[in-house]
Amino acid sequence: MGAVAVILRVMPESPEVDIEALKAAIREKIPGVSDMRDEPIGFGLVALKVATVIQDEEGATDGIESQFLDIPGVDRAEIVDLSRMI
């Protein structure tokens, strides 16, 4: 097996969620986060694009999405890009 680079869009529960605190919680709870960027959505809502590396094994993508859902303030997390690392 190899490693897979995954980019997820993480949506906060509301515009009132403290984005900096959410970023800190993500870095603390999700191993392998290599980059995180703000993505303005509208009406004050800011999503996060999070890049991380996971092992290429069955169910790994479902597992990473559910890890994000366990973080307070996260409404949903969806994979927007996935690529195998060489």
From TrEMBL:
Keywords annotated in UniProt: Elongation factor, Protein biosynthesis
Residue span(s) of domain Translation elongation factor EF1B beta/delta subunit guanine nucleotide exchange: 3-85
SMART domains referenced in this protein's UniProt entry, alphabetically: EF1_GNE
Claim: Protein biosynthesis is one of the keywords in the record: yes
Record GO terms (molecular function): translation elongation factor activity
Domain of life: Archaea
Pfam families: EF1_GNE
Family: Belongs to the EF-1-beta/EF-1-delta family.
UniProt xrefs under PANTHER family: ELONGATION FACTOR 1-BETA
NCBIfam families: aEF-1_beta, PRK00435.1
Alphabetized HAMAP family for the sequence: EF1_beta (MF_00043)
Function statement: Promotes the exchange of GDP for GTP in EF-1-alpha/GDP, thus allowing the regeneration of EF-1-alpha/GTP that could then be used to form the ternary complex EF-1-alpha/GTP/AAtRNA.
Protein name in UniProt: Elongation factor 1-beta
Species in which this protein is naturally found: Methanocalculus chunghsingensis
Gene: ef1B
